[in-house]
Amino acid sequence: MDNKDISYEIERLLNFAYEKGMFEELDRVQLRNALMDLLNIKETYKSEIKMESLDSPVSILENILNHAYEKGIIERNTTSQRDLLDAKIMGILMPRQSSISNKFWNLAKNQDIKAATDYYYELSKASNYIRMDRIEKNLYWKSNTEYGNLEITINLSKPEKDPKDIALAKLEAKKSYPKCLLCLENVGYAGGINHPARQNHRVIPINLNNENWYMQYSPYVYYNEHSIVFKETHEAMTISKDTFKRLLDFTNQMPHYFIGSNADLPIVGGSILSHEHFQGGNHEFAMAKAQVELDFISPENKEINIGIVKWPMSVIRLSGHDKDSLVELSNKILSSWRKYSDEDVDILSSTGQTMHNTITPIARKNEKNQYELDLVLRNNRTNEKYPHGIFHPHSRLHHIKKENIGLIEVMGLAVLPGRLEDELEKIEDIILDSSLINDIKEKDQLYKHKEWIEELIEEHSSIKDKKEIRKILEKEVGLKFLDVLKDAGVYKRNEDGKKAFVKFMEYNNFEIKN
Asked: How many angstroms separate the Cα of 291 from the Cα of each of 79, 306, 338, 378?
């Protein structure tokens, strides 16, 4: 691509950013000069530029990044190297942090909070911070179960690192700035081989429980408006009374969003336990739609609705208009659960000084405009039989899901590894031609699935339509995910489990409603 062509792409990108509200016309010359300097361009494009209607800058950026590699601006044409320059380019076009924050809260004040989040979400996509071109590659379907429609996604959006970049990453000195991927210091950060570039990253300040927090969107959204809300200070995650105050404060300010926290212990917690944060968004999960199957009442808090939810994991739902009462009652349940044991159902609160019990809390406003809190009981104990976790996906399910069951999975959305795309396609072929199962050897990619494949062949070998086989596989993966949730539930969905769950509720002085 010659310099004339790259000058044309710069003008296209400027037009796109202007149409998306990233800058005002008075800024155009300054931004053009900054892009020309970055890309070592000496002349502007002289001809007329036709206006385009683009949802994404990706096609323009791809042309610019190809040019950058041809001219040696990018040393290696790898995804990591391209992403670093991509973010730098879009960072030039993005408004400053204060401008975005001011516009967000002015929209919330003068229109409504949804107008504010709509603006911020569209800006995050337009800036290519949320990489919709990659997210759209994810596989997604729903699987109908007795607990509602579980959602399944196979994550194909996070690019694999090139071996050359991996080798360079090992040589790069370890840094303590930013401390983690969630820290405020990521805003505008240039990044490197070991840390994603964040020049196009901006956040929204929000006060929760009289503390400084910030909201951003996940670069790889798993559901609509997938948000991350993180504390200004780099503090380890802890579920406490303050957690419930923060969550309910958030629902006051953004009632169209749910918000929840991963648990604060390994195995049952999220991938980042080193920084206090929540996840939220404008999405209704199957768990939120699930009904209460057994109602209770607290003599001390009669105005609060209490119930056990019909869900494969163990969920206590609280709802009411009095925020303070909800906080107090939630904290009472958390405190009692921290020290509660019931050896008859394998629940031990601690082993020596190691604590095992915690909670995954999720907050929202319900259709009655009440605060609603779902408290999911968690336990991370391991033993010889279940070294990965007694209340964790057991080994028979690891061929589908082995990773932690965090907040998103708890609510009914399975985030499954990208390897499954290729593996499921191969399994389809084997079901259509069962003789192929004899080719699976112990070192093969499909060996971990072999027992499952044999079951599928036995049940579905008469079906010879590939599309029908795909539907069957999607349903079966959904049922596997349901088993994952059942394994993670501390009180099993059987008579003994239900009785033990009621026993815990009565331990909290809750009475079954007549």
From this structure: 45, 12, 26, 20
SS3 281: strand
pTM above 0.85, yes or no: yes
CA torsion sign, 71 to 11 to 216 to 417?
negative
Cα 149 from Cα 164, distance rounded (Å): 42
Per DSSP bridges, beta strands 354-355 and 227-231 are unpaired
Give 10-residue mean pLDDT values along the chain (514 residues).
81 96 96 96 90 93 96 91 95 97 98 98 97 93 97 82 51 77 96 90 98 96 96 96 98 97 92 93 98 95 96 98 97 98 96 95 96 98 95 95 93 94 94 91 92 93 90 96 97 97 97 88
Beta bridge partners of 377: 359
Question: Distance (Å, rounded) from C-alpha 389 to C-alpha 384?
Answer: 10
Measured distance CA(86)–CA(69) in Å, rounded = 12
Q: Can you tell me the distance from the alpha carbon of 401 to that of 382, in angstroms, rounded to the nearest whole number?
A: 18
CA distance linking residue 188 with residue 165, whole number of Å:
22
DSSP E strands, 344-437: 350-351, 354-355, 357-365, 371-379, 413-416
CA dihedral 230, 234, 236, 239 (to 10 degrees): -40
Q: Enumerate the H helices of 269-403 as residue ranges.
A: 286-289, 323-338
